[in-house]
């Protein structure tokens, strides 16, 4: 059973940056594909980025490509997302998730473990 805890959210102005972290415990972190998702008020949870077990492969939503960077440190059991050039439309609760499947995983149902989320608010 994998437990995930996100941190690093907060309030930032348009154009600013934040780095979210997600610490994992209870499992062999390097066995899992890790992903970041977000959910804005009144909207469905959506895919943001994913990274393979050894960081060989990353995928991004078109809306964040070129602005967000996902990374992981298997020695620290932590996955990150560096978010630059933030926009008001990036405002959401951000969730990290772990998938026991291999390859790029972009869909919510492919992830079996979820964190509690961290709020990111971008002011205009």
Mean pLDDT across residues: 96
- N- to C-terminal separation? 40 Å
Structural class, from helix and strand content?
mainly beta
Give a count of the beta strands, DSSP E runs of length 2 or more.
11
The main sheet comes to:
7 strands, mixed
Order of helices and strands: EEEEEEEEEEE
Low-confidence regions: none
Radius of gyration: 13 Å
Query: What would you call the shape?
Result: globular
- Percentage of residues in DSSP E strands: over 45%
Q: Helical amount among residues, as a percent range? A: under 10%
Number of helices: 0
How does this structure look, described?
It is built from no helices and eleven strands. Strands 2, 4, 5, 6, 9, 10 and 11 form a seven-stranded mixed beta sheet that branches. It is mostly beta strands and 124 residues long. It is globular, with a radius of gyration of 13 Å. The protein has strands spanning 3-7, 10-13, 18-25, 33-39, 46-51, 58-60, 68-73, 78-83, 92-99, 113-114, 118-123. The mean pLDDT is 96.
């Amino acid at each position: 059973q994998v437990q995930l805890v996100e941190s690093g959210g907060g309030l930032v102005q348009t154009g600013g940056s934040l780095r979210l972290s997600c610490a994992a415990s209870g499992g062999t972190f390097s066995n899992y594909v890790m992903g970041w998702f977000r959910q804005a008020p009144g909207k469905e949870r959506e895919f943001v980025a994913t990274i393979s077990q050894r960081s060989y492969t990353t995928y991004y939503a078109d809306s964040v490509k070129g602005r967000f960077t996902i990374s992981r440190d298997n020695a620290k059991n932590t996955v990150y997302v560096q978010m630059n050039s933030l926009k008001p439309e990036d405002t959401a609760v951000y969730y990290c998730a772990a998938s026991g499947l291999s390859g790029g995983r972009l869909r919510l149902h492919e992830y079996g473990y979820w964190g509690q989320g961290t709020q990111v608010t971008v002011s205009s």
